Amino acid sequence: MDRILIEALSVDTVIGVYDWERSIQQSLSLDLVLATDIRSAAATDDLRLTLDYAAICQRIQQFADAHQFALVETFAERLAECLRTDFPITWLRLTVRKPGAVANAVSVGLEITRGNLPEATQEISA
Ligand SMILES: Nc1nc2c(c(=O)[nH]1)N=C([C@H](O)[C@@H](O)CO)CN2
Fold it and tell me: Residues 124, 36, 107, CA angle at the centre, nearest 5°?
């Protein structure tokens, strides 16, 4: 299965468990791997037949503007649901980093995978 990549997308949002975090915007850095078959788009040179990474990035910032979660876990889970609802994504890996959140770490965060890959590609998904 082919994969569309989005690397180090910076999005601003209200996120955090502490009181001081509830009244400021902070930046999250997102990496996404989106499984799709690009062959029909490549054969026809037609954007409508693939995942439009620009539209996906725009949707992610809209999502970040519309929510104020405490945990990066909630942000990641709900964003994955949102993208899989709005775009024909059968499988995705989403990494969410919160730069500067912990002293002496460049960033902290998490990685989730959601959805199913076709059987032939499952063993190389890690
Ligand atoms: N597993 C998590 N641990 C922590 C989170 C989180 O979202 N998931 N958040 C915080 C605070 O908001 C922190 O980022 C502020 O520096 C602490 N731990």
Answer: 65
Q: Tell me phi and psi for residue 43, to 5 degrees.
A: -70, -30
Distances (CA, A) of 31 to 11, 17, 49: 11, 23, 22
Q: What is the Cα–Cα distance from 99 to 22, expressed in whole angstroms?
A: 17
| ipTM, interface predicted TM-score of the complex | 0.97
Q: CA-based diameter of the chain, in Å? A: 52
Please report which helix (H) or strand (E) contains residue 76, including its range.
Answer: helix 72-86
Q: What is the pLDDT of residues 93-115, one digit of tens each?
A: 999 999 999 999 999 999 999 99
Pocket of ligand 1 contains residue 73 by CB under 6 Å: yes
Ligand 1 midpoint to CA 33 (Å): 24
- Catalytic-role residue among 34, 98, 120, 121: 98
Q: What is the pTM of this model?
A: 0.94
Element (H, E) at 18: none
Query: Is 98 designated active site?
Result: yes
